[in-house]
Amino acid sequence: MSATPMKAALKTASRDGQTDKPTPTFSLGSMDIKEYFARISYQGSHNKPDLATMTDIFQHHIQAVPFENLSIHCGERIELDLEATYNKIVKKKRGGWCMENNNILSWVLKTLGYNVTLLGAKVYVPEFDAYPEEIDHLLLRVDLDGKSYIVDGGFGMAYQLWQPMELISGTDQPQTPGVFRFQEENGTWYLEKVKRKQWVLNPSTSTSPNVENEVCRRVYLFTLQPRDIEEFRGCNSLLQTAPDSLFVTKSICSLQTADGIRALVGWKLTEIKYNYRDNMDLVEIRILADEELEKTLKEKFTIILDKKFVPVDKRLF
What we know:
There is one protein chain. The chain is an alpha+beta fold and 317 residues long. The chain contains eight helices and 19 strands. Strands 9-8-7-6-15-12-11-10 form an eight-stranded antiparallel sheet, with helices on one face.
């Protein structure tokens, strides 16, 4: 099934010039919200679409569903199709990238009665000190009780939000991973994050622990222009085929934990414990042997791949 029937089911119906709010249904086709809840181990309430419920579901999602692009490095194509994404994440217990994680989160939140809008972002590229010309990231805007929130369960790594962020400019919004904030300029919104200092236990360039200072990092920019999932087909294809795409040059799998993150990029496994002491994160890095990869993916990310995985970690420069 393509995303079209899902959109049709959730689309506002219009009769005689009147607009009715859709009635949420808990299952559609082979997609069942209860099966999704079981996948993310969520046992809380879902009867009232409020901020607390949305935050709880969101946190369960990011701690159960990895941010990963492993399909690309198994010779598989990542499909921009809601049911295909559901089967991959819920039934096969895999993860996904932004267009998978946030698309399924959009379905979940709409099903529960939230007012959700898809937005497009441009992810900052440090190597060029610039943003791309075209959108390359999908995120969600949720309007709730007179306020707007950004919900983004598809960024991964150390820049993953742990809570919905209120859409207000110039205000620090501290979360467990660090301090996030939006800056708005002439209708363009910029997401920034202030990372804590890092205590790196075993950096590859040294035999003793070292400290990296805290810095403010740009993450992405976006506008509030509503998007349709079809508008992401171009970047969904380009990001998994372009030779200079981050997702082609690196195999990535990251998962948020109760107190930090773990990430496998190529053969490098990084585990971070947030706010270990004195506004400092504890970072441990280990290089895995080929024979450790399959076991590590299963034990630390609950991922079992159908096809042969070929890790990649190339530098563009």
